[in-house]
Design brief:
alpha+beta; 9 helices; globular; GST_Omega/HSP26; Thioredoxin-like_sf; Glutathione S-transferase N-terminal domain-containing protein
Amino acid sequence: MELYLNATSPYARLVRIVLMEKGLADAVTLKWCDPWADDADLLKANPAGRIPALVTEEGTTLSESLLIAVYLDSVSPDKPMIPQDSLGDVLHLAGLGQNLMDAAFTTVIARKHYGKEIDESELGQRRSRAIQRLLKQLSSEFGEKQQQASNINLGEIAIAVALDYLAFRLPEVSWKEEYPQLQAWHEGVIARESFQETAFV
C-alpha cells in the first residue's frame, strides 16, 4: 500500500497513528508530498489533490482520513480501532474529533490565504464559536476519564490529534489552560509511541 501525506496534516497523522497502532506501518510506503503544489503522483491517485490518500494493494485509492481508518481496521482484526461493542460511542467521538479538526484546519487555511482578518468574517466567527463549543463538550466527556494504557480507539485518536493540531497551529486558543482535566487526558494519549513518532513539526 502507498499513503500520500505530509508532516503537518492532522488528517494524515490520524491515518499514520492508526497504521502504527494496528501494526500495519511496515505494509505501507509513505509518499511525502505537497498537496498545494499539484503533485502529479498525488493528483493521479486522488484527483481532488487532497491528503491523505491511500492506494490499496488492489490499486484502489481511498481518501478521507476516517474512511481510510475504517478500511485499515478491516484489513487486520488485531487491535480494533472501531470495536463493534461500542460502535456508536466510538463514532460519536470520531465525529467530535473530525469536527474540531475541520474547524481548526479551515481557520489555518483561511488565514494563510486571506490573512488573520478573515477571523472577523461571518464564517471565521462561526468557526471560532464551533471550536469553543467542541472544547467544552470534550471537556465534559473526558474531564474525569483516564486513558487506558493498552487500548485506544478511533474516536480517541481523532480527538487527541485535533487537540494537538489546535495547540500546534492555533496556540492562542489556550485550551490546555482553560480545560486542565482535558489536558491531563490528552497528555496520557500523546505519550503513546504512535503519537510521539508522528508529532507535528
